[in-house]
Amino acid sequence: MGNRRPGPALLEVVVPARNEAGRLPAGLDLLSGRLAALPARAEVIVVDNASTDATAEIVRSWRGPVPVRLLTCDRPGKGAAVRTGLLATRAPYIGFMDADMATDLAALDDALVLLREGRTVVVGSRRHEASVVEGYALPVRRLGAITFNRIVRDLVGGIQDTQCGFKFFAGPLGRAAARDLRTTGFSFDVELLAHCVRRGAPVTAIPVVWRDRPGSTFSVRRHSLQCLIDLARIRARVSGPLVPAPAPASEPVLGPLPALPDRGLPSASSAGQG
């Protein structure tokens, strides 16, 4: 089923990619196939983040069931790449995913339904009680992730997993938060969510099926100090007065989306807990 229908996209998905020539073809194949099955137009934006391999060539030559376009971000850092991609979007709903597609793409259906119900920030959480997590890193890294998320929970609306590479937003809010984003390293997710929260937007955490993929460049030993420095800077940036959230964009007229599966998704009263 193709999704190259005319008209504006309802959903744009950003994929940051630095030297991802090995994993990107399989990731794009999975993502394009899932987006093509949605009852609305969707597009992919791959942001080549100063790659030195064939990442850009793979995207330029890609042919699939949904449009995939290439952007270039010469400033190294996943945060810089995600910011570039989100600011290039125009759709009512936007988000980003990791190139390795470690988060099962079935969660896309859940996220889109929740966004259309009025949730403005929907994130995957590996610590949600209904999530299935396979092969989650080394014990020291797992402990570090738990400690990290406890430190930042007050900034991000109380969710328990800020670092899962699966986050979606109402378009105006996501673009406003991205404009304020300054962190380029691994802590950028915290700042992006904090800019949403300071605009009064609750964060809804949903369960995911997540499988660890080889190839992560994060190192507890090499990056922990910089993460702590970044967190101190983020707290300073988001300590100002509350900024009203942007008004939601008008939504294209579409056919009905599939019913939301019963997979332990939070009710409106539990938004913000993951």
Automatic annotation (TrEMBL):
InterPro entries reported for this sequence: Glyco_trans_2-like (IPR001173), Nucleotide-diphossugar_trans (IPR029044)
Keyword Transferase: yes
Keywords, alphabetical: Transferase
Region Disordered, residue ranges: 253-274
Pfam families for the chain: Glycos_transf_2
Sample GO molecular function, one term: transferase activity
Protein name: Glycosyltransferase
Biological classification of the source: Bacteria, Bacillati, Actinomycetota, Actinomycetes, Streptosporangiales
